[in-house]
């Protein structure tokens, strides 16, 4: 029963919430996992690597992926297109891995409607809006305009926390990582209804 095919863990929350640092911190403690690399039309930032942080494409290539039904979900975030490739996610799930998604609230809705059976979702947030602003300022990778847009979006996204299974307030990185680790480990134990039915049939036959 513990060997059922993979599971999904959706992580959402404003940029600056600490999602990437948290994933790095728990990476060695949650078993085999696959971090879904999204495709995006947003310009590559300093320090980012194509194929590692995102697959960076132009609008035309993105539209081709949509037409060919290559996405599990896609959305416009801060004016750029983002999408989750179906193929690599399917492969990872078939290999029994935990698939991690860093996607926005629209993506969470879409993933839940297609893979709700095996999906656990977590919203990660800094303790307050002003702390988020401070973190973005410290990181200083954004123009004033982009930062304003991130804060505006954070205020909108926070209204939808109740759509998530869990919320982590990331005030202390070690404590938040410990909670995320527990959630990731239990996400792997989520049982799809298909497996439950199979188990009941086999159990009754014994
Ligand atoms: P950033 O440009 O800062 O890397 O990401 C901006 C936002 O886009 C984040 O909230 C992130 O979670 C979201 N995002 C990244 N990839 C995807 C995706 O494939 N689908 C959706 N729906 N959102 C994504």
Please specify the SSE layout and strand pairing:
Blueprint: E1 7-12, H1 19-26, E2 33-35, E3 39-40, E4 55-56, H2 59-67, E5 71-77, E6 80-85, H3 86-94, E7 98-102, H4 105-115, E8 119-125, H5 129-139, H6 144-158, E9 166-169, H7 173-187, H8 193-205
Parallel strand pairs: 1-7, 1-8, 2-7, 3-4, 8-9
Antiparallel strand pairs: 3-6, 5-6
Helix pairs in contact: 1-7, 5-6
The structure holds guanosine-5'-monophosphate (5GP).
CATH class: Alpha Beta
Largest sheet: 5 strands, parallel
Strand fraction equals 15-25%
Which CATH architecture?
A: 3-Layer(aba) Sandwich
Order of helices and strands: EHEEEHEEHEHEHHEHH
CATH homologous superfamily?
A: P-loop containing nucleotide triphosphate hydrolases
Structural class: alpha/beta
Overview of this structure, please?
There is one protein chain. With 206 residues, this protein is an alpha/beta fold. It has one domain (7-199): 3-Layer(aba) Sandwich (Rossmann fold), CATH 3.40.50.300. 44% of the residues lie in helices and 20% in strands. The protein has eight helices and nine strands. It has helices at 19-26, 59-67, 86-94, 105-115, 129-139, 144-158, 173-187, 193-205, and strands at residues 7-12, 33-35, 39-40, 55-56, 71-77, 80-85, 98-102, 119-125, 166-169. The chain has a five-stranded parallel β-sheet, sandwiched between helices. A four-stranded mixed β-sheet has the order 4-3-6-5. Strand 5 and strand 6 form a beta hairpin. Helix 1 crosses helix 7 (173-187) and helix 5 runs antiparallel to helix 6 (144-158). The longest helix has 15 residues, at 144-158. It starts with 6 loop residues before the first strand and ends with a helix. The mean pLDDT is 93. Bound molecules: guanosine-5'-monophosphate.
